[in-house]
Amino acid sequence: MALAELIIRAIDWFYIRPVAAVLPRQVFRYAVCGGVTYILFDPVCYFLFYNFIVAHRYVDLGFVVVSPHIAAMILVFPFTFFVGFWLNRYVAFRRSPIGAGTQLLRYLLSVAGSVLLTYAGLKFFVEVCGVWPTPAKMVTTLLTTVYSFLAAKYFTFRHAEKPE
Q: Could you list the residue ranges that cross the membrane (predicted)?
């Protein structure tokens, strides 16, 4: 059995009342995949990178100095990107007829919007509001969830109702 099938079975085991009465299965799978990726995996990676890789230091790239919380966000991005794409493609939106290359490009575009929202949120919460970086990242991630779902459902992994 493929890894995606095991993940789907595990997720669907929790798809019971009252959740099943309120959420369609696809939305539930997306929520679980997003929760695992962006509520658990991403903040843990961010915490590790911020505290141990970047180690609270500013990163001088020669042409710009990047603050530690933004440097950690940049370094965590590839990990979160590919885990999120894989889970969305093979678990949440597996019936999409769109090819993998097109999905990956569309996913990159939709994630770029999320990255911009995350960047602005981190700048705002950390530098304007004085919130600690890890909680600021978690709040910012929650704020991008609605955008991400809508982009995934209606752009990246949409079902083709008419031939394209």
A: 27-49, 61-87, 107-126, 138-157
Instruction: With respect to residue 51, please indicate whether it lies within any of the assigned structural domains.
Output: yes
Amino acid (one-letter) located at 131: V
> How far apart, in whole angstroms, are the C-alpha atoms of residue 145 and residue 154?
14
For residue 42, which of 136, 149, 150, 151 has the smallest C-alpha distance? 136
Q: Which domain holds residue 128?
A: 3-156
Whether residue 161 lies inside any domain: the answer is: no
How many other C-beta atoms can be found within 10 angstroms of the C-beta atom of residue 24? 10
pTM higher than the cut 0.85: no
* Inside any domain, residue 13: yes
Burial class (CB in 10 A: 0-12, 13-18, 19+), 116: exposed
Number of domains in the chain: 1
